[in-house]
Amino acid sequence: MEDAVKKAQLPQSGREMQIQEALKMCRVFFVNAGIFSAFLNILYLAPTIYMLQVYDRVVPTRGFATLGLLTLLFVAAASTIAVLDLIRTRLFVIASQKLDVQLSGRIFDALMRAGASSGTVTNSSLMREFDQLRGALTGQGMLALFDLPWAPIYIIVCTILHPLLGLFALVGGLILGLLSWLNEKVTKAAIQKVVGANQSLFQAMDSALGQAGVIGALGMRKAFVRIQISERLTSNLISARAGLQTAVITSFVKAIRLMLQSLALGLGAYLVISQQMSPGAIFAASLLVSRALAPIEMVTAAWKSLVQARAAYEQIGLLFDGVGPTPQRTWLPDAQGRVSVEGVSVASPARDRLLLQGVSFGLMPGEMLGIIGPSGAGKSTLARALVGIAPLVNGSVRIDGAALIDWPERQLAGALGYVPQEPTLFRGTIKENIARFQETFPGEGGLDAEVVRVAQLSGVHEFILRLPHGYDTELTYNGSGLSVGQAQRVALARALFGSPCVLVLDEPNSALDAEGEMHLIRTLAELRKQGVTIIVVAHRAGILADVDKLLVIRDGRAEMFGPRKDVMERLSGGKAVVPQETPEKASKD
């Protein structure tokens, strides 16, 4: 009893919270499909009964009326079989759609959370595997699994006709079952390799397609096509080997079932000749044996898809177990913008080295910090850590005393504004990108008013109005359709949406012209007056002229931190200087 209580008190895994919960909501469809399967398999006895009655009653007595009535009953039974089979298939289709509604969003959310927590791009092929799992729900394998429990019933009916027929069907079923088990043992490892190879293949393809423009500009397209072809050949070879292994056993199963069906006819003839059965039982025996063995054959034929579906289930389960359910945080008082960075360390994606080591500093609301240092020092990594993108190995980032992980996700998003080193926009309208794809916004004027306000504040309102459709101009894949400078200014407007109290800018002026940079400087000055805490990573001097404090990062460590004047004097050996502008944008940290 105590063990049961302890088990009940343990937190559920992500798999139990997500997949099993979704499957429970689909349970009613599977239960109804099982009920329809019962009626179907009972009606499948109709051809056997019809044949027995025709040979044993109609033919000897020449009963035309009996034949007509039997035929009408058989046609009605066959028609009912068609209707029930259609309804059962429809139930599986509805269950598949229901599962998609319940899980597809959760899987995508988990993929994004997994990518955010690891700092790497997650494999989108998991969504394709989920589609394969859903497809298995409506395939022949699932239908066979629902018919499989009725195989013993048909064997019992064979036994009623004659014990030898029952024994024959039982032995045949055991042989096919043994082959199916052997098929599972032989192909399990191969199919798992197929799943892994497909994941790697699609991940490489997604990565290449996402950088198609750069690949083409550098003349690497043919090389990437060659690499893709090579990887596909490897994946297809693994898949072909698994398919051939399955095909060998499936072919044997088909041949053995056909042989058993014909031998059942011969056994029935023998029993009739021996006067142990009526003549009508000859064909009835063949039909019953065939029906008893058909689900086993169908399961064997569909085994590869069933195993792949099972593998997809496991992969999705591992994803949910890894990220767990979305934590429910207590809503905190509105953030004021006090930032504390306490001993922050960040590891590389491979976790073989530290990109940041023990970085600490603090800012009060309304202060502006400039982060400088050589390329590759870890400045962009620190910027990502400040907004919760880069996972921390040690230390914490706090806003108003609360660690980032303690803030509710929606509340933290409203308190933070972030412009990444590369202005990442998304497919959709400019308005949707600026509004962070929100559909509503509280306050006077609503969403449109807020979008226009931050666009005017960031200096993009005028150029947006000159676009063919203004704020409703559609951007394509990766937000393409704007110049890099325009995209950077739209990204700034997006960061300002909702009036965040902390703004993190990673080289926000790298693609701006002189006019754009001057407007950016004026915007930052206005935000400081409003009490917004601003953190800027920069290589160009103009934007650092009015910062309150400077942080110098070198080799992932905080080398200097303090008021701008003091830090610049230390850097110059006592002579106040400002950083020199670099002609080109520094490489990504």
Automatic annotation (TrEMBL):
Note the SUPFAM superfamilies from the entry: ABC transporter transmembrane region (SSF90123), P-loop containing nucleoside triphosphate hydrolases (SSF52540)
Annotated Gene3D superfamilies: ABC transporter type 1, transmembrane domain, P-loop containing nucleotide triphosphate hydrolases
Please classify the protein's predominant subcellular localization into one broad category.
membrane
Q: Which SMART domains match?
A: AAA (SM00382)
ABC transmembrane type-1 domain ranges (all copies): 33-308
- Keyword ATP-binding set for record: yes
Q: Which UniProt keywords apply?
A: ATP-binding, Membrane, Nucleotide-binding, Transmembrane, Transmembrane helix
Which NCBIfam families does this entry report, sorted A to Z? Answer: type_I_sec_PrtD
Q: Under what name is this protein listed?
A: Type I secretion system permease/ATPase
